[in-house]
Each structure stands twice: as structure tokens, then as C-alpha cells.
Amino acid sequence: MYDVDIYRFASVEIVVPPAGNCGDDTVLTCVVEDASSKFTGWFGLGRDLMNNGAAVHPEDSKKYTQAVNGSSFSLIIKDTDIHDQGKYKCRVGFSESQLKMLIIECKAKYVNLILTRDRHLIVILKSVYPRPQIKLNIFEEDGTKTVLKGSFRKQCSSLQDWLLTCEWTSSNAVQDGNYSYSATVTTVTTSIYNGYFKISIPNTIRLDPSTESYHVEEYSEINNVTCTVYCNPECQYVWRDGHGNNISTSSVLALGKVDRSLQGEYVCNAWNWFGKVNDTVFVTVLYGPESIVFTPSSTTYVKNEGEMIENIQCSVVCNPNCTVEWFQAERIEETVVSNSGYLGFGSVKRQDAGVYKCVATNTDIQGDPSIQKSLELEVRYGPDTVKLSSGSDVTLILGEISQDITCSSECNPPCFFTWSHVNSTILSNDSILSLGKVEFTVQGEYRCTVSNDATGKTIYTTLTVVVENPEQTQEGTTSGAIIGGVVGMVVLLGLIATLAFLCYKRKQHETLKTKDTGKNTSQCDVSQQENRTTDTAYVDLKERGESKKEDVYDELTVSVTDVSASYENASVHGY
Hints:
Helix 1 packs antiparallel against helix 3. Strand 43 (416-421) and strand 44 (426-428) form a beta hairpin. The protein has six domains: 9-105, Immunoglobulin-like, CATH 2.60.40.10; 112-199, Immunoglobulins (Immunoglobulin-like); 206-286, Immunoglobulins (Immunoglobulin-like), CATH 2.60.40; 296-380, Immunoglobulin-like; 387-468, Immunoglobulin-like, CATH 2.60.40; 473-516 and 523-574, no CATH class. It is rod-shaped. 15% of the residues lie in helices and 45% in strands. Strands 22, 25, 26, 29, 30, 33 and 36 form a seven-stranded mixed β-sheet that branches. It contains three helices and 47 strands. The protein has 575 residues and is mainly β. Mean pLDDT is 82; it is low at 1-7 and 514-575.
């Protein structure tokens, strides 16, 4: 027989929450009064779900569970989604509740606020259901409420068959500043979201370390450089080199150990929709000197004197630019002949010949490293003049042994010498002429010819040789002495005649005076009359109108001079 309690009816009521939230567990509660039966069950979505705490369909065992709490029991729906929305009821024995609707909603986990390039505010709610309503309050930093004039344009779309993404875009721009907001969002139920945001244009970049210019030796290491700037929305960063190539897409520039290829400028660019800023770091890599190169490349020059040499450039791989100097190396004290990197001669001279070295020094690197490279200049010259050790005329004594006569000239390379007689007979193929024992046959003209095949120049000089006989020289001396004696006698007689003439004139003058004074002078005393002789002659001549006293003196002077000159000429011709 059946227990009569089975047929008793109980009071059964199902309690459904206002909405089940997506992704959460939703609990439906069955409240029972006067229940004598232990039989329970759940019905929903048009089918039986559970009987006495067990899933009717095996596939529902993970979806539904039942919990008992005193006189009530509950249906727990795991991971609620839109497919769980529908009508549900519960039963106890023969009693059951009414069907009640379970509404499913999906609340936004957060509110996302972004700004467009034109400063419009966008409020984004993701994965919401059903279509929400929103009330947005925005406050400035000081608490003042800011009303965004104009309406929000709302747009909802779904990537799934039921979840929506909704955006509200303000129709007016938002200015720079610090803001807080309160968003009241209603789907089935209402949720409030609070937060803050800041709108700012990027303005000042800060570098860490703050160094903007690096000077490092090659293969040294540079620490990472971080570029930061405060901006909202958050800035994006990129480091570019001087050629515009992206080096880093973050705020960090990591160069590490540098070589010369990394020299240049590096620009940090930071930007958001409202603006951009940048700052530059300069990297100078020190290296060298190395690889001296000459232009033209020759290291040996052979030039004739007077020829031109184009400027020689000494270039070197060096950073920063090295000090480049040219030295003439063969001088006792090396002197700088150029500090411009160019060695210039123009028209070369013989004193330009020598070794020149180019020295490159990098004074920006510790220790002042330097390298050098040399070139040699040979200048070919001569002959220009010819010198004889004896002079161009020489007198030799018959029978003696003559000294060698040397012919010389400055030449490079050394010149070729030839001695020849006037009759073109070659006597020697070197610079020395040896005549040996002097005979009359060596008398005559000789020619020293100097030639330089390198310069193509040939010049010569002439030597005149006179041979004397000692005996003939003695006879000539005796004849000269005799002639000299004769000339001397002639001069002496001339002087005596002159004195006699003067004495005669004096006596004649005294005779005239005796007639006037009655006195007579009987003798011609030259010593006593010395001071009057000229005057007496002068008076006599004046009376006759023939001359002056000065004329007499002039005649006497000329006569004596002529006699002296005649004597000297006689002596010279006699030698």
C-alpha cells in the first residue's frame, strides 16, 4: 500500500534572481512549506533537468547541480550564458511551482575611455548584454563637474550572436586636463564604474642618463639610454638613426659596444594622438690614425731641377680629423714644412731633394697615437758652371813637372768629364788634366766638357796654357834695365835744361832792373833767388804779353809729368 503522505500537496514557490550574470553561477531557489514528500525535481527550458538531485540527461551533469538547505533546495546553473535564459519551475512530490522567467545579462567588467585624434571621448563597454544604458558624469581635477556638450553617438555591434560591444562618442572635443568620471551602466541591473583619466600633449623628453653627446673610443661600451615623457594617452616610442632607420621601437636605446659604423645621431620620437616630441643623442666614435694614403700614390719622385710637381696629399683614416704634418726628415732638426696635409714644391730646386715624411696624430685619443709614411724626392741638376782648379789661364815653366788641373761642376747624378786639346784630341775622360813634364808642345788651349745625361745639359770651359823659358826671361830683364837707364838720363837732362832756362830769364830781368836802379847782379844764385824766380819770369812775360804766372807753373808741371810717364812706359816695354 502507498503511504498516504505521498498524495499530500505542499506549498512550492520558485525564487528567480532579477538576472543571471554571464560567466557566473546562477542560483534558482525552491521554497517548500508543509512538504511531506522527499521527491524533488527541476524543469526548465522545456525539459526535465533534475530528479532528486540527479541530472536527467548525462550531458547536463556538469551544468546543473542541486543543493538542499533546510526546507528549501536550489538549482545551481554553472557558467551562465544567454542559452540559459528561459522559464524554470520546481516540484516536490505532486506539487510544483509556477513557471518563472530567468533573464540573463552580461555586465561589462570595466569601462574603457579613450580619446580620438580630434579629442573626442569614447566610452567603450565590451561583451555586454542586453543593450545597455549609460549615464556618464565627468569631473575636473578640482571636483568641478564638467558637462560634455552635445549628445553621445551610440553604436553597438556583436562579434558573437549575443555579446555586444558598445561605444559612446562625444560630439564635442575635450581639452587638456585631469579628469575623474562616474559611469552608471544599466543592462538588466545597474552597475557604477568610477575612474580617472588625463589628457596631455607630449612636451618634454627626459633622457637617462642625461648626456646628449657621447665621445667614446671605438669598441668601448655605451650604457643604455632611456627616453621618457609624460603623456596621456600613453605615448609610443621609437628610436631612429640619422638615416631614418628604426633602431628601437621602445623607449630604450641599447648600443652596447660601439664601432665606427654606429657613429651618428639617434633621435627619440615620442607621440600620441595629440602631439609628438623628440630629442637627439649624438655619438662620436674615436678611431685612427690608420692607413695613410698619398695622392698621387707614388713614394719616389725623380725630377730635373725646374720641373713642376703637383701637390701631394697625405690623407689618413681618422676620427675626428687627425693633425697631419709634413717633415723633411734628413735635416738635423726636423722642421715642419706643411701642416695642411699637402706637400707642395712647385718648381723643384736642388735643395728640395731628400726624404719627406707625413705624420698623422690623433690628439683626441689618450696617448696621442700617430703613424707616419715617407716619400723620397731626387732632384737631377747640372752642369750649370764649370770651375778649374788653376783658373782659366796658367803659365808653366819649361822643364818643370806641372800640377794636375781639376775640372769640377755641381751635378746630380755625377757628370761626365772630358778634356780635349784645341785640335779636338781627347786627352782624358775624367775631371783631371795631367800634363806631366812641361814642354813647349803643351802650350795652347784646352777644353773641359761637362755633360749630364739625366738632365741633357752639356757645357764647357777653356784653359789657356803658356810655357816660359827661364833663360829668355833673364835676357829680357837686362835689356829693360839699360833702356831704363837711358830714359833716366833723358829726364835728368830735361830738368837741367829747364833750370837753365829759368836762370836765363832771371838774369835778363835783373839786367833791366839794374838799368833802373843802378845796381848790377852778376851771378845767378838759384838758392837766394828761389822765391823770386817765378815772379821775375812772370813780369817779363807780362810785359811782352805772353803769359801769366799760373801758365808757367802749369807748363812746368806738365813737362815733369810727361817725362815721368815716358820713364814708366820705357820700363814696362823693356820688361
